[in-house]
Design goal:
Blueprint (H helix, E strand, L loop, with lengths): L11 H52 L3 E5 L5 E5 L4 E6 L7 E6 L5 E4 L5 E2 L10 E6 L9 E5 L5 E4 L16
Antiparallel strand pairs: 1-2, 1-5, 2-3, 4-7, 5-6, 7-8, 8-9
Length: 175
């Protein structure tokens, strides 16, 4: 006598229902994913600039010399000893191509650290960088820009420039 084995697998209707549910879930999650991607790109670009600034300050202290950080296109940067002129490190294409970098005061591109790690005047008498703001070129609602603040004492801080954050929030910029 021949016994019939139970069928295994999915029917076409079950498969179509599963694909439809997956499609709905992906459609609902896509905007959140886009915001997450933009925030990640901003964070990566801000980290790239902050790493260069930290390197310049650390090398100034370590070498007991004046060291300069120069910001180029977007997140491209160079760290070099001022006297005698010696390039220590150069980074290009770090961060994201979608990141927009704005420097304050306008027109400044360099900041110089003295042997104690404090900010000092630039060799060419140009204005030193005070803040670097990073946002996304494709920003939508929910995207969080970041700011890097360089204090006169040379300390570096990455913070959120959103003025709507609570006064005690550690992410908030004090400026």
């Amino acid at each position: 006598m021949l016994t019939r084995q139970p069928m295994r697998g999915f029917t076409l209707v079950e498969l179509l229902i599963g694909i439809t549910v997956l499609g709905i879930l992906l459609t609902l999650g896509a905007p959140s994913f886009m915001v997450w991607m933009q925030n990640t790109q901003i964070r990566t670009a801000a980290d790239a600039v902050l790493n260069g600034l930290q390197l310049a300050r650390t090398e100034a202290i370590r070498r007991n010399k004046t060291v300069q950080f120069a910001l180029g296109n977007q997140t491209e940067w160079t760290v070099s000893v001022v006297n005698p002129q010696q390039q220590l490190q150069y980074r290009m294409d770090e961060g994201s191509a979608n990141a927009i970098v704005q420097i304050s005061p306008g027109g400044s591109t360099t900041v110089t650290f003295d042997a104690l790690g404090g900010r000092t005047s630039n060799n060419d008498a140009s204005s030193a960088i005070d803040t670097v703001d990073i946002t996304s070129a494709t920003a939508t609602s929910g995207v969080r820009p970041l700011r890097i603040v360089i204090t006169p004492s040379g300390s570096l801080r990455m913070c959120d420039p959103d003025v709507n954050l609570a006064a005690g929030d550690p992410r908030r910029c004090t400026q």
